Amino acid sequence: MKKGVMRPGHIQLRVLDIEEALKHYRDLIGLIEVHRDAQGRVYLKGWTEVDKFSVVLREADQPGMDFVSYKCVSEAVVDQLRDELAAFGCNVEDIPADELDGCGRRVRFDSPTGHMFEIFATKEQTGKWGVSAVNPEAWPRELTGMKATRFDHCLLYGDDLEGSLKLFCDVLGFDIAEQVLDENGERIAQFLTASLKAHDVAFIKHPEKGKFHHASFYLNTWEEVLRAADLISMTDTSLDIGPTRHGLTHGQTIYFFDPSGNRSEVFCGGDYHYPDHPPVTWTADHLGKAIFYHTRELNERFLTALT
């Protein structure tokens, strides 16, 4: 049941050193640095994104994710969902306009898995980077690194998957596109979407609350994923796993780490989901194939390296 949440808007990540982080997110992944604010935060975006920014980096003592925000179709939807979030039992905080430069007011709320989320409706739109909105060329010539097109989704680890499923589906209007069930039929992974994508956020069951697994950025082709692997090797970046294919969502993927220990993904392809589609289900005895379709084996670091 759609309620007016369109898509991921931005994610704020904690990094230990801003300039080292920029070598990763700007120079390697290829995001565009668009702004630095009075707090020292750095704003970036993928070149196809029309909003001013989609990634914010904040220097801190510990790595991880501060919050991820979702864009709604209108301020009226934000008001309605704010009331519903409070009624659901979330702790709700109103963040004033321009606390993030160029972004309107946001509503921040906690979740059963211990992660912080936001909704908003208004953000300055600067257009796709390097191409005109009228008679646009195919792509900007000035792109660097992996040439990431957009911030696509994040994967989060926490304990109360059922609570977060109710929050995202019943309150925010997401659909469940894919899931993994254990031998008792209990859900141990869920991939949720507010759009036609395979997922806009995903959760894996984990005993600790509030853990961050990765932020993911979209590439156009499998050839670009292979090129990303070359760049990871050229820059001696810490590789997690890949290039490979997921069984879940069928995306073609590679995982690697920023200098602070936050995991990044770049991927291409993947399934689509319409609201009338039932969830795709994997069973826990096929979890290796679900996560890494080719090797069919789990990488222990992939399951345990969290920030």
UniProtKB/TrEMBL annotation:
PANTHER family noted in UniProt: FOSFOMYCIN RESISTANCE PROTEIN FOSX, LYASE, PUTATIVE-RELATED-RELATED
Record has Oxidoreductase as a keyword: yes
Name by which UniProt lists this protein: Metapyrocatechase
CDD domains (alphabetical): 2_3_CTD_C (cd07243)
Record-listed E.C. numbers: 1.13.11.2
Keyword Oxidoreductase attributed: yes
UniProt KW keywords: Aromatic hydrocarbons catabolism, Dioxygenase, Iron, Metal-binding, Oxidoreductase, Repeat
Enzyme type, top EC level: oxidoreductase
Domain called VOC: residue spans: 7-122, 150-269
Family: Belongs to the extradiol ring-cleavage dioxygenase family.
SUBUNIT field: Homotetramer.
